[in-house]
Amino acid sequence: MDQTVRLRQAVQAHGKEIETLVLREPTGEDITVCGYPMKFGDGEAQPEAKAISKYIARLADVPPSTVKQLSTADYNECLMVIMGFFMPPESLQQNQTMGSA
Prior knowledge:
Blueprint: E1 3-13, E2 16-23, H1 28-34, E3 38-41, E4 44-47, H2 49-60, H3 64-69, H4 72-86, H5 89-100
Antiparallel strand pairs: 1-2, 3-4
């Protein structure tokens, strides 16, 4: 399912100013090309910035130059959407329930 990220700061893509990014769900090909967005080790998960940047560009169909323009807050919002694609549905429900408690 596609997820829309409303940007706090507009960016340029394909010669236009955009205020939202629509990220489609990744496919097996996307995972093969980009790798997994997190690195696991020592009981921790660390975001992989290069992989995440590739996912943003591919899933939102924007050039890498657009990803480089994203504010930290907007990049992190895209990161959270991408991570949601990789979490089992029950994990997402738990996180939503915990966040609303």
